[in-house]
Specification:
Layout lengths: L1 H9 L4 H24 L17 H10 L21 H24 L30 H9 L3 H13 L6 H14 L10 H6 L5 H4 L9 H8 L5 H13 L3 H14 L5 H9 L1 H4 L3 H17 L6 H12 L5 H16 L6 H11 L9 H9 L14 H13 L2 H11 L11 H18 L2 H11 L8 H14 L5 H10 L6 H13 L5 H27 L10 H14 L3 H13 L10 H13 L3 H13 L5 H11 L4 H11 L5 H7 L1
Length: 668
């Protein structure tokens, strides 16, 4: 039957069937053509091409995953044994990677003959060794143009001098580009963009340290300027900006006065640079404000429209004006005036407002509430270099000026909104920001709520400094939350805080004054105390081999607290004996005495372990160091142990015969 069906299916179709089928198909196609002719034609719109960066695809993929504060940074190996767990370790790890890149580039540059192959097509210039120029090099104008485009300052200066030496004419536009390069970088090489870690971990220098004259006088920039026969406005603008940036304020202002006399029109950026150095030009506060008004008036007369840089430059000068009322009045007037002009403040503007209103010894100001109402929920980009100062300053105000945890959480939420975290600055500012954040939460929130934030951010986002750990330990002491002590001790080990004597003493005090009620916690406290002792011994031995002084002095009080905690465990008598022998044999070099509670606990431990010789040795230590309770301790030994004549005679010599009277009366 199946074979018959297959045979029938292979037979050719009847002609009549084919004709009928063809008619139906033709009719169907006709209907489709008629219906398609009645439909409106869709207009194809080709979208405008969007410029994409080299990491846009990675950013798009990252946005689908989200931010995970509990995960380590991608630059560290995702391995618990390899991830750095201290600020020094993180910096060392990242800088070591960067140093490896620098070493590879140095080897490639020093052995350029070995790296002539080009595997990439088209060639990638960054992978090839750079050209080395000497005093004998044959150079052309194109070499200078290429060096300026690649921001190679020193080589550009050398090539220009070679061109000048060889009497090769350099175009005016190229000279202008070279002038801009040397003025912007002050004749020095800049840190290359690919060295991200070095930029990130570069410690923030204080403003006072940076606000000093570093401009190189009588160098190529001034030579290029004076060589120009017909000076155009851009020549004046570039040189004034360079001098103002590197605080050659006298020459910058003199050049500005020359432009006023010659009626040379400057641009807005140049006026902004002049406003930034107003505090260096005038000493009195009134004269500074008058100078700002004078420069702004000149801008208006030249038909220039101020921008956000102008606003920030004016506010920066106001921060240098002393007092409370005048700076606040000037700042509010300035902000209102620029708002009328349609200038939108940047984060740097709000940073200056905080610096003006929330001064250390000034009256309390709640301007940060108004600022947050204005900018909350917005995404910001970098507009001014000082934009990176806003978040750390705002958190400082929340902690030290207002003591407001709710406002601190609002600031933190804004920081983590979209890409605003890019404005945290560098590692130094990030560490200070989280220090203030932890401090304000630790002092205002319940401990358990604070510990949720602690577990979320530590250690991958933030590693607390010793001052923060100290505040957390104090909060634990106040709340009697001793269950967190083992975690804090383990973090102190990871973060290299075990060489901080104040932290060790505070931790020991917490464990002593808050006796645990569970056997498990008692044993953990004993383990912490012994671990602390062994680490201190290792530090002391290491310092001795290097002929250095140990960072933590093994004082009598410190060893006594450790001894007391070990004795409470009631299971590690050998460890307690080791600590006492340390106290006894080195009592001439150990500063201070242990507390009597520690000696009483050790003597009782000796009694429980039936060690009369050690108990009498501890009694001798107490008697020699003048403990008032020595007689009481001796009486306890006599009552609790069966002693021979030698032991009794020794106790009698140490604390007197009064201690033995009850025993002698019983013997009679």
């Amino acid at each position: 039957m199946n074979n018959l069906c297959r045979s029938v299916s292979k037979l050719p179709a009847h002609p009549a069937f084919r004709i009928a089928t063809g008619k139906r198909l033709f009719a169907t196609q006709t209907v489709r053509r008629q219906s398609s002719s009645t439909e409106p034609k869709e207009k194809i719109v080709i979208p405008t091409r969007i410029e994409r960066g080299p990491t846009d695809i990675l950013n798009a993929l990252s946005s689908t995953v989200g931010y995970d504060p509990t995960a380590p940074h991608y630059k560290y190996h995702d391995d618990p044994y390899l991830m750095p767990m201290s600020n020094v370790g993180k910096k060392t790890f990242a800088m070591a990677q960067e140093a490896g890149r620098k070493a590879a580039r140095w080897i490639r540059q020093e052995n350029a003959k070995l790296f002539r192959h080009q595997e990439a097509d088209p060639p990638i210039p960054a992978f090839a060794p750079t050209m080395v120029y000497t005093e004998e090099s044959q150079v052309e104008e194109t070499d200078l143009r290429r060096l300026i485009e690649n921001v190679e300052v020193q080589d550009a200066i050398l090539v220009y001098n070679l061109l000048k030496k060889n009497n090769i004419e350099v175009g005016q536009e190229l000279k202008q580009s070279l002038l801009e390069l040397v003025c912007f970088f002050n004749h020095e090489e800049s840190l290359e963009e690919e060295y991200i870690e070095e930029r990130w971990f570069r410690q923030g220098v204080t403003e006072k340290g940076r606000q000093r004259k570093t401009w190189k006088d009588f160098e190529l920039a001034e030579q290029l300027f004076h060589e120009v026969q017909e000076k155009r406005p851009e020549h004046f603008c570039v040189l004034i900006r360079g001098m103002a940036k590197y605080y050659q304020v006298e020459k910058a202002w003199a050049l500005y006065q020359e432009t006023i006399e010659k009626k040379v029109l400057l641009d807005t950026t140049t006026f902004n640079s002049l406003l930034q150095i107003a505090s260096f030009l005038k000493e009195s506060y009134d004269m500074r404000w008058d100078l700002v008004c004078e420069v702004l008036t000149t801008m208006k007369n030249q038909g220039l429209r101020p921008n956000v840089g102008t606003l920030n430059a004016v506010l920066q000068t106001i921060t240098t004006i002393g007092g409370y009322n005048h700076p606040r009045s000037y700042a509010l007037k300035t902000l209102a005036e620029f708002k009328k002009l349609g200038v939108e403040p940047s984060l740097a503007s709000w940073y200056y407002m905080l610096a003006i209103f929330c001064r250390e010894r000034g009256p309390t100001s709640h301007i940060l509430h108004d600022i947050m109402n204005e900018i909350e929920g917005k995404e910001f980009g970098i507009v001014d270099p000082k934009d990176t100062f806003f978040f750390v300053t705002a958190m400082d105000v929340c902690r030290n000026h207002l003591h407001d945890k709710d406002l601190a959480k609002r600031v933190n939420k804004l920081l983590h909104h979209k890409d605003n975290y890019n404005l945290i600055g560098d590692s130094y500012k990030e560490s200070i920001y989280y220090r203030h954040f932890f401090m304000v939460l630790c002092s205002t929130e319940p401990l358990e709520t604070f510990m949720e934030t602690y577990h979320l951010l530590v250690p991958n986002v933030y590693i607390p400094e010793p001052s923060v750990i100290e505040e957390i330990l104090k909060s634990i002491d106040v709340n009697c939350a001793i269950e967190h002590v083992p975690l804090l001790w383990s973090h102190m080990i990871q973060f290299d805080h075990t060489n901080r004597e104040n932290l060790l003493l505070l931790l020991l005090q917490i464990m002593i004054t808050n006796p645990p009620k569970t056997p498990d916690l008692v044993q953990k406290f004993t383990a912490i105390a012994w671990d602390m002792y062994t680490r201190l011994e290792e530090q002391s031995a290491l310092a001795g081999t290097r002929n250095q002084k140990s960072s933590v002095a093994l004082s009598g009080a410190l060893l006594g607290d450790i001894l007391l905690l070990v004795c409470r465990g009631r299971e590690e008598f050998e460890k307690a004996q080791t600590i006492f022998e340390k106290l006894n044999t080195e009592q001439n070099s150990i500063v201070g005495d242990p507390k009597v509670e520690a000696m009483r606990s050790f003597i009782q431990f000796c009694i429980d372990e039936r060690k009369p010789s050690l108990a009498i040795g501890a009694l001798q230590y107490c008697a020699e160091n003048g403990f008032p309770e020595s007689a009481e301790l001796g009486r306890n030994i006599v009552r609790s142990l069966t002693l021979d004549e030698v032991h009794l005679g020794k106790i009698k010599r140490l604390v007197g015969a009064e201690v033995l009277k009850p025993v002698e009366e019983v013997a009679k």
